[in-house]
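Sanity check. The docking grid for adenosine-5'-triphosphate depends on where the pocket ends up, so I'm generating a full predicted complex first rather than guessing from homology. Inputs follow.
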Amino acid sequence: MTTNTAHATAALSPATAAPGPAPATGLDERIRRNPGAHRVLTGDRPTGPLHLGHYFGTLQNRVRLQRLGVEMFVVIADYQVITDRDLADRLAEHTENLVLDYLATGLDPERATIFTHSSVPALNQLMLPFLSLVSVAELSRNPTVKDEIAHSSQSAVNGLMFTYPVHQAADILFCRADVVPVGQDQLPHLEVARTVARRFNDRYPRPDGSGLFPRPEPLLSAAPLLLGTDGGKMSKSRGNAVSLSADEDTTARLIKGARTDAERRIGYDPVARPEVSSLVLLAALCQDRSPETVAEEIGDRGSAALKRTVTEAVNEHLRPIRTRRAELAADRGHVRQVLRAGAERANAVAEATLAEVRSVMGSV
Ligand code: ATP
Ligand code: MG
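Predicted complex below; grid placement will be based on this.
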């Protein structure tokens, strides 16, 4: 599996691209040179099955980094489910399904620490000092928070929604991760984590003057913003996603219903034709080819031919992952054991970090 970083920014449409720092240059190269010097934190909300946006946006990168030997923490952000809805519906089921998606796509629980927010109290406690380091104005300016509010099922915005990025800073900094493989929508949140790390280090230096926390950097993939069947960001909770665990017929049906445009000739132009280009990119990523080649090959045969190509490419690419997932799903006991072991390790790390935080803050 390769990632084609050359297409990273080309795949973004200006209407949906969130402002944020430019993708970190040279990070990939630095990791490859010395994987042991880095630590990764990533995660997902247990709000539904993982989809193609996750897979090409972050999962492939996680597996690649793991294979390089980078230490990895994966948080299942169960407390963040209730930022934009009243109840965390079918939480245990969604959590176990996330673990199955992780294992099926290649995360190895021997090398990756997979855990839930709610099982690591010391991580959540870091939010208290961190909240004091950002202003309310900074939080209310966050474009991702604004977007999530727009899609929220709640009539009023709750406090957890506003503090979401600070919670995420705690997720990242509890294990002192310096690399965060994310999709484009997470860049503003990552900027908050960077700010929190810098301000904490300035305000509470260690006795030798050094800072406790690294400044985490985002790692974007070739598809940092894959679009869903309605032309908006593919999301678990927007009913526009093709999930990794869907069967082949469902995959075909969903792709057939994807929004395109009226132009017959297929091209790759993410700015002018975001929906068509996202489909082209999807086929290209599955087939490990360039989007331009895929578009050229379909040429004048129109959207129906494009969709047939995409369906075949996706189903073919996901076939071994889906088979493996079905095998893993037969042993729920193993899934729960992965979460138990992950929680144990994450707790040890979080407690050590919290002890250091208390120490530099002068708490007794
Ligand atoms: P929800 O709708 O519940 O927010 P989601 O589909 O947005 O779910 P998250 O759990 O919020 O998924 O995001 C997990 C990770 O996957 C984040 O790093 C996010 O940037 C990435 N991601 C989510 N959707 C996409 C997408 N369409 N393209 C690329 N990356 C994505
Ligand atoms: Mg989301």
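Relevant for the grid: Confidence is low (pLDDT under 50) at residues 1-24.
Also worth noting: The pocket of magnesium ion (ligand 2) is lined by residues 235 (CB under 6 Å).
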